[in-house]
Amino acid sequence: MIRNSAAEMAAKLNAGEITSVELTQLHLDRIAAVDTDVHAFLFVNNEGALAQAAEVDVKRAAGEKMSPLAGVPLALKDVMTQKGVPTTCGSKILEGWRPPYDSTVVTNLKKNGIVILGKTNMDEFAMGSSTENSAYGPTHNPWDLSRIPGGSGGGSSAALAAFEAPLAIGTDTGGSIRQPAAVTGTVGVKPTYGGVSRFGLVAFSSSLDQAGPCARTVLDAALLHEAIAGHDPKDSTSINAPVPQVVAAAKSGDVKGMKIGVVKELNGEGYQNGVRIRFEESLELLAAAGAEIVEVSAPNFEYALAAYYLIAPSECSSNLARFDAMRYGLRVGDVDGASAESVMNLTREVGFGREVKRRIILGTYALSSGYYDAYYGSAQKVRTLITQDFNKAFEKCDVMVSPTCPTTAFKIGEKSNDPIAMYLNDIATIPVNMAGIGGMSLPAGLAPEDGLPVGFQIMAPAMQDDRMYLVGAALEAALLSKWGAPLLSKIPALAGA
């Protein structure tokens, strides 16, 4: 049962073949059996999840109209607030904090009857590409427990790949949904910026952060996308417009006549050979499905990584200033005679990890007097150029595509002492965040040299997220026909699900 898609689970729930309590318990048992090895979860809410599930069962038995995913379990990235449930953002500085309110995403999940199993591990404050920066230890990739599951949302993606949950929520600032999806053989979507509310999402970089769905199939992602999206007056950046018809698109998968633009600048040197092989194979399958493959150029993508690592740290240095040991969270050095400044300094020294401190320092410098225009201001100009590149390219195609990541999952510890090498993992995903458009990663198969998953990235114009699901569904169907079974059925580790 736990290997079924979320849509299949929902069908069985509606048919009375299983109750939500039974389905939730199956997943809680799976977590208990394998998460010691995977470490996808920071907190498992056994009691709360079963109570949610029981409530859904009562409503269904009473004949109430249920939402499409009612009763299906989900794993929640620990950067979203959930009332009364520990929320750490993978940081010691928030250890023990239980928010007094739900994020809008959590409110929408509850409204749709989706059962929240617990909170998943992540790079501290979503800063990282490997989930090695968590203050609570790294998450392991179920394909190979010695490898990373991507970041910052590695806990959510690993939970999906290990069959600990059929659905998950992630957040994506520079690739933190899509990159973990790519290296774990799952599906991850960054909706258009403003398409899903950020209220209750603990901010890293406010102009880049975006919550989105994580799943094992394109249709499951679409169903979850529809459940959490929509305008929210609590979020000033929320778009007041209808949610794109993502579920209809995922059920259609018809790409006949669509123009798919291959980004020249994201398909060159530096990509693992197996990644390139699977990417080219996916293009051939889309062409066979009736799409036209064209090449597009985005020359300013070359500067996206550098601009991102000025904008994101600058915004993080401002956002993380609220963690001052005065209002909530960790408090160190509070003894008689200690000044507020001393307590604040000691708390931040102990509470923040190395990568968070690095980015705060970078951002504070970039915003400092005399440097603002040279660094942060210039990076924002590059951001405008990247957006213009997208606009020009979309005049020639309906969606743009690239490999999601340059390589498959690397070994835990392999790049932890080389920040530049780590940052380069997001080279293909960052442009999407800079422009605020939608992006999706779905499995394109296994790299022949190491047998690990490869991701295929689809990018669509703002508020045209349904285009990603059309192309994603078409490619997924073609690849499933080629493989003969879901990619995750080939996973060598953690057998027995």
Automatic annotation (TrEMBL):
<keyword id="KW-0436">Ligase</keyword>
<comment type="similarity">
    <text>Belongs to the amidase family. GatA subfamily.</text>
</comment>
<dbReference type="InterPro" id="IPR004412">
    <property type="entry name" value="GatA"/>
</dbReference>
<dbReference type="GO" id="GO:0006412">
    <property type="term" value="P:translation"/>
</dbReference>
<dbReference type="Pfam" id="PF01425">
    <property type="entry name" value="Amidase"/>
</dbReference>
<keyword id="KW-0547">Nucleotide-binding</keyword>
<protein>
    <recommendedName>
        <fullName>glutaminyl-tRNA synthase (glutamine-hydrolyzing)</fullName>
        <ecNumber>6.3.5.7</ecNumber>
    </recommendedName>
</protein>
<dbReference type="InterPro" id="IPR020556">
    <property type="entry name" value="Amidase_CS"/>
</dbReference>
<keyword id="KW-0648">Protein biosynthesis</keyword>
<dbReference type="GO" id="GO:0030956">
    <property type="term" value="C:glutamyl-tRNA(Gln) amidotransferase complex"/>
</dbReference>
<dbReference type="InterPro" id="IPR000120">
    <property type="entry name" value="Amidase"/>
</dbReference>
<dbReference type="GO" id="GO:0005739">
    <property type="term" value="C:mitochondrion"/>
</dbReference>
<dbReference type="InterPro" id="IPR036928">
    <property type="entry name" value="AS_sf"/>
</dbReference>
<keyword id="KW-0067">ATP-binding</keyword>
<dbReference type="GO" id="GO:0005524">
    <property type="term" value="F:ATP binding"/>
</dbReference>
<dbReference type="GO" id="GO:0050567">
    <property type="term" value="F:glutaminyl-tRNA synthase (glutamine-hydrolyzing) activity"/>
</dbReference>
<dbReference type="InterPro" id="IPR023631">
    <property type="entry name" value="Amidase_dom"/>
</dbReference>
<feature type="domain" description="Amidase">
    <location>
        <begin position="22"/>
        <end position="467"/>
    </location>
</feature>
